[in-house]
Amino acid sequence: MGEVEYDDAAAPPGWRGKGGLRGRGLEARQDELRSLEVSVTEARYFLPAMVTGLLATPEYIRASLADSPGDVSATVAKKIARQEVLREGSCSFTFLLTEQAVRWALLSPEGMVEQAARLVEVSRLERVRLGVIPLGTVLPRGPMNTFTVYDDRFATVEIFTGRLAFRDSRDVETYRELFAMYEEHALFGDQARERIRSWFEA
């Protein structure tokens, strides 16, 4: 996969409501994210509630789109194709997931076990750091929102009704500091893999 030049003008605007995102097409959004992910050198994902598509099985991805109108097969396919960015290109990825995000049951128990195995598999990739924050971990700030930080250029925050993008350096630095704080409390490597397995042993 070739590099593409980063262009701030192509980054998401300050606010996109859910209707506007769907109006452009879910597949178009996947193309936008793919271009973004190959144009930065470092991406940090804080996931307090659900697993992101880059880490998800096809079954989990489809379940996460259950409230989307129409046939989502093309979007599912593009989300799966996007996962190649974890193995190709030069971007490094750090994912922080709370225990709730890992265990939230979008699927049957069997499906969730497969999803857990997918997390363990991805955690072993060379350019991926995957950390988990178990319930009971004492944190100085509550995990309020899903957010992603791309280099030191901008950050996106997702809520039920849409997505916010922050480009002001002070805002981006705030999210970088938040991420670093959560990162200090996360388990990585073998500890993370063992904890994920333990959550699904039953």
What structural keywords apply?
DUF5753 domain-containing protein, DUF5753, Endonuclease, Chain A, 202 residues, disordered N terminus, 19% strand, alpha/beta
Structure description:
With 202 residues, this protein is α/β, with parallel strands linked by helices. The protein has a single domain, classed as 2-Layer Sandwich (Endonuclease, Chain A), CATH 3.30.870. Helix content is 41%, strand content 19%. It is built from eight helices and seven strands, in the order βααβααβααββββαα. The protein has helices at 18-24, 26-37, 58-64, 73-82, 99-103, 109-123, 169-184, 189-199, and strands at residues 15-17, 42-47, 92-98, 128-133, 146-150, 154-159, 162-166. The protein has a seven-stranded mixed beta sheet with strand order 1-7-6-5-2-3-4, sandwiched between helices. Helix 1 (18-24) packs across helix 2 (26-37), helix 2 packs parallel to helix 4 (73-82) and helix 6 (109-123) runs antiparallel to helix 8 (189-199). The longest helix has 16 residues, at 169-184. The protein is globular, with a radius of gyration of 16 Å. Mean pLDDT is 88; it is low at 1-13. It holds the Pfam family DUF5753. Residues 1-23 are annotated as: Disordered.
Brief digest:
Pfam families: DUF5753. The chain has 202 residues and is α/β, with parallel strands linked by helices. The protein has one domain (14-199): 2-Layer Sandwich (Endonuclease, Chain A), CATH 3.30.870.10.
How much of the polypeptide forms β-strand, as a percent range?
A: 15-25%
Please tell me the total number of domains: 1
Poorly predicted segments: 1-13
Q: What's the SSE pattern?
A: EHHEHHEHHEEEEHH
CATH-derived topology: Endonuclease, Chain A
Give the N-terminus to C-terminus distance in angstroms. 40 Å
- Helix coverage percent: 40-55%
Q: What is the structural class?
A: alpha/beta
Major sheet: arrangement of strands: 1-7-6-5-2-3-4
Gross CATH architecture: 2-Layer Sandwich
Tell me the Rg in angstroms.
16 Å
Largest sheet: 7 strands, mixed
Pfam families: DUF5753 (PF19054)
Protein name: DUF5753 domain-containing protein
